[in-house]
Amino acid sequence: MSNASAPSVVTRVKPDTADNKSGTVAAASSESVADFAIFLILATFRNLQWCTTASLTPSTFTDCHTNAAILSHNPRGHTLGFLYISLPAHLHPKPFPNKPTGIIGLGNIGHLLAQKAFSAFGMTIHYHDIIRKPTLEGPLDATYHADLNAMLALSDCVVLATPASPDGRQLIDGERIKHFKIGSRFINIARGSLVSSTALADALDAGILIGCGLDVHEHEPAIDPRLIGRRNVTLTAHNAGGTLDTHIGFESLSMKNITAVLTGQAPLTPVNLHFLPSALKEKASL
């Protein structure tokens, strides 16, 4: 038997702590997360949290049946502001074969979500990103905003779908909330660390926000008590990517990355080449 050490292959680890090529399997959850975001959008427009909880007793049932309609809206024609902050180009995983470039990992979630919201519900798509994607704008009739605050000011519903900030910085805090359109809605299917739960609760109290759909939370599994029990806030337990299809996809993509590395090829979805020492980086990129 050979005494040569087997190559190390890691597919789920913090990219800045690995000393070998690391791959991501996040793209396997794109469809599931995009679908879940659509559910949360509908929940905020149609007051589904109120409708669901009200159905449990006759008195609340009657109240909701009588009064919910005046506070509910169809998404069609409303402006969906899509917030996705791309990683710098040198941090991007390589695209899958036969897939369009530029829409990778969490970026793919946003594209799928925009397609669904535009095609199925007739929503008007706006987006903010540090990297503009003009090739995607035409099919979606999407409008790009270099200025995040300008997009927030006109969006009826804002969806956050961006990687967590490496420095832990919050993207949606008390100051940022001030730029939201009065009476708008907010959806977070990204990372709880990006959003101040205190700012959300304050905005709901002030009427800046009239609905929230939150799958991820600032201090999960704990949720800010001020957000619990509100009939205009839909809370879920970080379930957006949680489908059998996603887990099958995770395993399949992991094995494809492993097979690629073991056969001397680059991983399909590398994430950490920029963290490796120069010697390892050169070897890993071969």
Automatic annotation (TrEMBL):
A UniProt-annotated Pfam family: 2-Hacid_dh_C
SUPFAM superfamilies listed in its UniProt record: NAD(P)-binding Rossmann-fold domains
UniProt-listed InterPro entries: D-isomer_2-hydroxyacid_DH, D-isomer_DH_NAD-bd, NAD(P)-bd_dom_sf
Protein name as annotated: Putative Glyoxylate reductase
Cleavable signal peptide: none
Gene Ontology terms for molecular function: glyoxylate reductase (NADPH) activity; hydroxypyruvate reductase [NAD(P)H] activity; NAD binding
Highest taxon above the source species: Eukaryota
Residues of the D-isomer specific 2-hydroxyacid dehydrogenase NAD-binding domain: 94-240
Record's GO cellular component terms: cytosol
PANTHER family reported for this sequence: 2-HYDROXYACID DEHYDROGENASE-RELATED (PTHR10996), D-ISOMER SPECIFIC 2-HYDROXYACID DEHYDROGENASE NAD-BINDING DOMAIN-CONTAINING PROTEIN-RELATED (PTHR10996:SF281)
Keywords from the named record: Oxidoreductase
Location of the region described as Disordered in the Swiss-Prot/TrEMBL record: 1-24
